[in-house]
Amino acid sequence: MSNRDTTRALWQIHLCVLLWGFTAILGKLITLPALPLVWWRMLIVVAALALLPRVWRGVRAMPLRTRWAYAGIGALVALHWLTFYGAIKLSNASVAATCIAFATPMTALVEPLLTRQRFQPRDLLLGVASLPGIWLVVGGVPAGMHAGIVAGVVSALFVALFGTLNKRMVDGGDALTVTALELGAGTLTLTLLAPVMPLLVPAFAGPLLVLPTGMDAFWLVLLALACTLFPFALCLVALRYLSAFTAQLSVNLEPIYAIVLAAILFGEQQELGGKFYAGVAIILGVVFAQGLLAARRKPTGHPEQAAVSEAHRIAD
């Protein structure tokens, strides 16, 4: 592997992370409620993947039990995106992106339970270290945004769950096939939830079959193709030339990109107090520490699995 390959891969992975950071910005720009927004995003991606013969070959070659497993994970992905974009609608892009950073310490607690691995005490200590940051974030946003924080934390929990389950299924199939199955199942999950969503969480509800128009349609296509499929494919290439340490460090920049973009484009720093940004600094410090420790004690991951996991995250 040459230095030129590594340098190019670094630029590629940072472009991916920047595009994932834009998903929060596009969620703010799209005027649709959270449910139809996520439904259309998933549907567009699945429709694009359905055009690839490779995906259909992968589905046919996959055992039925494995398909059902990925479908279940896809339902969690749908709930993650639903609560993430719900958090944006209930607060703003900066708050939602910060809450997703909780996924790293949450994963440290959830993963041993789901994979039957030994629990690491230092992971608990890092989780405790993030508590002051959480307190500052809550105290640094207007009271009207607290519902968005709750939705964002729930979204981070879903990230921890489906990310851990995806790791268990790392060799279950081709990455694009897995993505098509999971997002297809996610689309179906949201379709089934739509009739009861006004009763469960009215703030997220909205009609699915109303065709988006104007700028909403443009932003949705951009979200699905430029900020989901394109970085997914690019990530597959970049991760072949990067260590797990470098990849983890790069991906953890995602909330920072989202917060900076929200400040530049929406002036969200005027809505949020100094306590909020102090809390963000503490939480991101914990996230970086957790990610670096994890990358150092684990071998480099399966590159396609890393792309599947990260393409589904953003946090999107």
Structural key phrases:
single chain; 316 residues; disordered C terminus; 0% strand; mainly alpha; globular
Question: Can you characterise this structure?
Answer:
By secondary structure, the chain is mainly α. Helix 1 (3-29) packs across helix 14, helix 3 (53-61) crosses helix 10 and helix 4 (64-90) packs antiparallel against helix 9. The model is unreliable at 299-316 (pLDDT under 50). It contains 16 helices and no strands. It has helices spanning 3-29, 34-49, 53-61, 64-90, 93-100, 103-115, 121-129, 131-139, 146-168, 175-193, 197-200, 214-238, 244-251, 254-266, 274-297, 303-313.
List the helices and strands and how they pair.
Elements: H1 3-29, H2 34-49, H3 53-61, H4 64-90, H5 93-100, H6 103-115, H7 121-129, H8 131-139, H9 146-168, H10 175-193, H11 197-200, H12 214-238, H13 244-251, H14 254-266, H15 274-297, H16 303-313
Mean pLDDT equals: 83
User: Helix/strand/pairing class, anyone?
Assistant: mainly alpha
Helix content: over 70%
Helical stretch tally: 16
Low-confidence stretches: 299-316
Shape: globular
* Share of β-strand residues: under 5%
Main sheet, how many strands, which sense, barrel?
A: none
> Could you spell the SSE succession in H and E letters?
HHHHHHHHHHHHHHHH
Radius of gyration: 18 Å
Number of strands: 0
Distance between the termini: 31 Å
